[in-house]
Amino acid sequence: MRAFPRPLRFWTALILLVYWCGLDAAPAAAGLAPSRPTGTTAIASAREADMIAVQRALENRIVAQKLRDYGVAPDQVRARLASMDDQDLHTLASATRGLPSGGDGIDALIGVLIIVLLVIVILKLLNKQIVVK
Fold first, then answer.
1. Beta-carbon neighbour count of residue 60 at 10 Å?
2. Are 101 and 57 in contact (CB under 8 A)?
3. Helix residue ranges, H only, the chain
4. Which of 64, 68, 104, 132 has its CA 20 to 30 A from that of 121?
5. Are 91 and 97 a contacting pair, CB within 8 Å?
6. CB of 54 closer than 8 Å to CB of 93
7. Domain locations in the chain?
8. CA–CA gap between residue 123 and residue 130 (Å, rounded)
9. Is 50:92 a contact under the CB 8 Å cutoff?
10. Which tens digits make up the pLDDT trace of 54-68?
11. What are the tens digits of pLDDT across the range 62-110?
12. 50 to 18, 96, 132: CA distances (angstroms)
């Protein structure tokens, strides 16, 4: 003996089919939430954005060490940055975009080594031979 009669099963299946097709056809809406700048973090001009990018690059230990090796004091760097015109500051900020902010790149090196080790392990598990010439 069946728990559900045949017409009830048919209509239940039809309703579920229509419902699932409706869910599949409904478009998903997504977007970025607008940020609310505070008074201390608001960047008012492109010059300020470039200045922040250059200052973050100068926080890098390697850059700071190189400047000390050349005999440049941090006060001299700040004075020179303040006296630069907008075009030169933008050029310098564009050049520093590739540098890591405040780091020395060790994390990236470790990540690459882990990926290489994973590839080697996968190849060994697949009984593939690794030949370095």
1. 18
2. yes
3. 6-25, 46-58, 61-69, 74-83, 86-96, 106-125
4. 104
5. no
6. yes
7. 46-105
8. 8
9. yes
10. 888 777 777 778 778
11. 777 877 887 878 788 888 888 888 888 888 778 777 655 555 567 777 7
12. 55, 10, 45
C-alpha–C-alpha distance, residues 54 and 84, integer Å: 12
Rounded Cα distance, 60 and 106, in Å: 12
Stated pTM of the model: 0.42
Identify the pLDDT of residue 96: 73
| pLDDT given for residue 92 in this prediction | 79
Cα within 13 Å of Cα(100), Cβ side: 11
Length of the chain: 133
Phi, psi for residue 74 in degrees, rounded to 5: -60, -35
CB atoms within 10 A of CB 109: 10
77 contact partners, CB below 8 Å, separation of at least 6: 58, 67
